[in-house]
Amino acid sequence: MSDRNDNQQGFWSRVFHLYYDGFRSMTVGKTLWLIIGIKLFIFFVIIKMIFFPNFLNTKCDTEQEKTEYVRHQLVDR
Amino acid sequence: MEELINVVDWSRAQFALTAIYHWLFVPLTLGLGIIVAVMETIYLKTKSEKWLATTKFWMTIFGVNFAIGVATGIILEFEFGTNWSNYSWFVGDIFGAPLAVEGILAFFMESTFIAVMFFGWRKVSPKFHLAATWLTAIGASLSALWILVANAWMQYPTGCEFNPATMRNEMTSFAAVALSPMAMSKFFHTVLSAWALGGVFVCGVCGWMMLKKRNLDHCWRSLKVGAWVGVIGIVLTMITGDTSAVTVAKYQPMKLAAMEGLYKGNHDQSIVAFGILNPSKQAFDNQDPYLFDISIPYGLSFLATHDFHAFVPGIEDIINGVSYDAEGNPVNTVPYAERIERGKQLQEMMAQYSAAMNGGNNLVQDSLKNAINADFKHFGYAYLDSPEEAIPNVPLTFYTFHFMVTVGGYLLLFLLLALLFVYKPNILNKAKWAKWWHILAIITIPLTYLCSASGWIVAEVGRQPWTIQDLMPNKVAISDLSAGYVQTTFWIFAVVFTALLIADIGIICKQISKKSQTDLDTVND
Questions:
Q1: Do A75 and B351 touch (CB under 8 A)?
Q2: Which residue of B has its CA nearest to A42?
Q3: How confident is the model at residue A2 (pLDDT cuts 50, 70, 90)?
């Protein structure tokens, strides 16, 4: 797609082509996106889901229960 | 109890590990972002293809570091929810609000403009592209602002009121949280130090390329911007460091005392320029805190208050509640033993509040809520077994502080010399020792990272045992987890982050090596 044609397109089409052409013409960027993908998979799928649940959500079902749990932790300690 | 301490220690180690690794990526993004923006501005003014080539070279390095570092900070938020759940509940929306603003800014501003920055060279006008580059750099700094606002609130909790009904702190003034003196000094000191780091990085990479005799013109162009941004960064870091010291003296005097290894304070207090601490020194044992020290008279009084004769309290003074004003009159501060008692009274009031709430007694609730908030600044002391428990790790705080200051002074000299060579290149070109200067420039890169990490160690270790200053110690902020569980995730993070760091350094070195062998006086797409 030439620069001239870009200028004749609508705004959203130009935004689309900015990203589309940008991703297609990447060199080192492809390696970086692979690393980002692997990293996000490890962070959000493996680490977050398996090892990092929200602790209070595992102990309590409601906001009131969470309040009481923390009150117990802070007052009765 | 031993298990609890183990969990606290492992959780702290895990947080420190992830925060330090995260911070390896962030300052280079902040510093190089500005440098790239300045280079592109010069290109637009001069229309020189050489400046365009130089801009693109550093933009690639910026992009690699940005991509590897992106989302490494999210791990810290995972840890808040799992390891520090009492803390996360207790701080409520105060911590959440700045982080939410940060998330929105990071997502919309950085992700939009960074795409234009990398993909938009032939798609948008040169001026729009330049604006996108500047907005990416500014957006990164604004992201840092909100993280630092959240951190500053933990150092100096303000703009909030505790609600005993929900056991949460509720924000009463967003402006007080966002514009607190701690937040402002922390933001400027941290971001400007990243400019210095970016400048040093450029000097170091150019040092390597000059050593290899590759693209010397490109190196001199890069050095011109890198040295200027670095010098401006380090000078402003020193100025804001002075502001930070005054802020710490006012709001965290125990941290300042630990930074200096000061147990008994004085008027006209000197500052230790170089010292070796007495490793067996404990509070109130009357031993000399230093085995050896070289001190600057009046230095600490001036650093802490901008008054050469002011009283600076030491660790023992703070614990005993001793301080004096400029005229030498005693100032009423609360001894730590009393703070512990008042904290325990607050704990009892909270239990009474809970009973009144269950009994539907609104009058008692209101009265107790007012009483709790009036004395709330002592709440965290309820959990201390003794006043001495409020003393941070003095040797670690002392040595990292002095390392940071010493390296900071060295960086000023280094960057000023780099600037001199930019304007008088023949000094370096004709010097027999030029090779050693180039090697020094390379070595200065890791040294600057250590300096930057030391600053964070001072800030965080110096405020121990608090997760939130005076309100919540670590041992209360922690979740009821097993030490083994935290150890497992610690090692997972150690492996993942080390792999990311190796990838970052590997790809950056490969890109520098590869691109330095091409002609960087012309644009190579």
A1: yes
A2: B496
A3: very low
Instruction: Give chain B's domain count.
Output: 3
Q: What is the mean pLDDT of chain A?
A: 84
Q: Indicate whether B499 belongs to any domain.
A: yes
Give A31's contacts in chain B (Cβ within 8 Å): 507
Cβ neighbours of A8 in B, within 8 Å: none
State the complex-level ipTM. Answer: 0.83
Q: Do B123 and A14 touch (CB under 8 A)?
A: yes
Number of domains in chain A: 1
Nearest to B479 among A22, A55, A71 (CB): A55
In a domain, B521, yes or no: no
To the nearest whole Å, the CA of B335 is away from the closest chain A CA by: 23
What is the pLDDT averaged over residues B203-221? 94
Residues B64, A73: C-beta atoms closer than 8 Å: no
Taking CB atoms and an 8 Å cutoff, what residues of chain B touch A67?
89, 165-168
Whole-prediction pTM value? 0.92
Tokens 């709790």, residue? B372
Do A75 and B79 count as a contact with CB atoms less than 8 A apart? no
Distance to chain B for A59, nearest Cα, Å:
10
Nearest-by-Cβ selection for A3 from B81, B90, B122:
B122
The answer to whether residue B168 sits within a structural domain is yes
Q: A18 to chain B: which residues are within 8 Å by CB? A: 115-116, 119-120, 123-124
Percent of chain B with pLDDT over 70: 98
Burial readout B319-339 (b: 16 or more C-beta within 10 A, e: otherwise): bbbbbbeeeeeeeebeebeeb
Report the SS3 class of residue A41: helix
Q: Can you tell me the distance from the alpha carbon of B268 to that of B298, in angstroms, rounded to the nearest whole number? A: 5
Mark yes or no for CB contact A71/B68 under 8 Å.
Answer: no
Question: Within 13 A of B352's CA, how many CA atoms are on the CB side?
Answer: 15
Q: Are residues B76 and B205 in the same domain?
A: yes
Alpha helices in B424-518 (DSSP H): 425-430, 434-461, 474-477, 483-516
Chain B residues in contact with A51 by the CB 8 A cut-off are: 82, 488-489, 492
Q: Are residues B189 and B241 in the same domain?
A: yes
Residue at B376 is within a domain: yes
User: pLDDT tens for residues B138-168?
Assistant: 999 988 998 999 999 999 999 999 999 999 9
Are residues B510 and B398 both part of a single domain?
Answer: yes
Single out the residue in B364, B387, B410 at which a domain terminates: B387
Q: What number of CA atoms fall less than 13 Å from residue B129's CA on the CB side?
A: 21
How many A×B Cβ pairs under 8 Å?
A: 113
Question: Does B82 share its domain with B103?
Answer: yes
Domain that holds residue B188: 2-252+393-461+463-516
Looking from the CA of B72 toward its CB, the CA atoms found within 13 Å total 27
| Residue B359 shares a structural domain with residue B277 | no
Distance (Å, whole) CA B198 – CA B62: 10
Q: pLDDT confidence of A8, banded at 50, 70, 90?
A: low
Domain hosting A41: range is 3-75
Q: Which residue has the tokens 């110096």?
A: B462
Pick from B60, B168, B492: which is nearest to A28 by CB?
B60
Residue B430: which pLDDT band, with cuts at 50, 70 and 90? confident
